[in-house]
Amino acid sequence: MNIDKFKFIAHRGLFDREKIPENSMLAFDKALEKGYSIEIDVNMTQDGYIVVFHDNSLKRMTGIKNDITTMTLSEIKKLKLLGTENKIPTFEDVLLQVAGKVPILIEVKPNSKYKELMKKLINLLEKYNGKYSIQSFDPRIVYWLKKNTPHISRGQISSKNIREVKSRILKILLGKMVFNIITKPNFISYQYLSINEKFYKKQKNKGREVIAWTLKNKEDYEKIRDYCDMVVFENESTID
Fold it and tell me: How far is residue 93's CA from residue 119's CA, in Å, rounded to a whole number?
């Protein structure tokens, strides 16, 4: 395994939009085969199980209109991703699959029961022997990590325009990462379009690493490769 590949993080695994669904065990297998780090998204079911899935709504990936937080694990296990035989995996299954072979970048999705989610997540990770970091758009989650697990590498995800946030003021505050004063993240995961030399130097001066997300072509990578420490990417041609 080429250790240099660890700085390249496969976005939701190495997936394509037809045969290999994102955040599927197959997509993670493909990333493991190439030795890339893996970015995953986690949320919690109605009955308290942590699953690996990006959207709140199940519609895009399964055709079901329900939110994932309103479904039980047994209900979710019946669903197929993009009409394939791939299912939504549990976080525990993904940990068993990766088994420390590559680092995992874990994005915790905003959840009204985030404290319960975080406690369960950490309980599972305490039994895991691989490398991992945890990140979130939600500064409450980053602060929870600072307060309860300061030994775990934590990151603030942000961009200048967070679409999910409706409040203009909150959008500005999150974009400027003003909550970093309290949450003190170890790294910043920022949309690549807003990363430049000035941004990079500012974060490095604060002792933080910078992850650029999500790159989809080689031209974009060439523009920011000197201004980030790690890259979240789709399509291997982006970093070849």
Answer: 18
For residue 198, give the CATH number of its domain. 3.20.20.190
Domain count, the chain: 1
* pLDDT tens-digit series, residues 58-95: 999 999 999 999 999 999 999 999 999 999 999 999 99
Among 148, 151, 153, CA closest to 133: 153
Q: Token digits for 21?
A: 């669904």
Residue 193 pLDDT more than 80? yes
Global pTM value: 0.95
Contact 132, 125 (CB under 8 A): yes
| Strands (E) located in 31-178 | 37-44, 50-52, 104-108, 132-136, 154-158
Q: Supply 185's token pair.
A: 């993240």
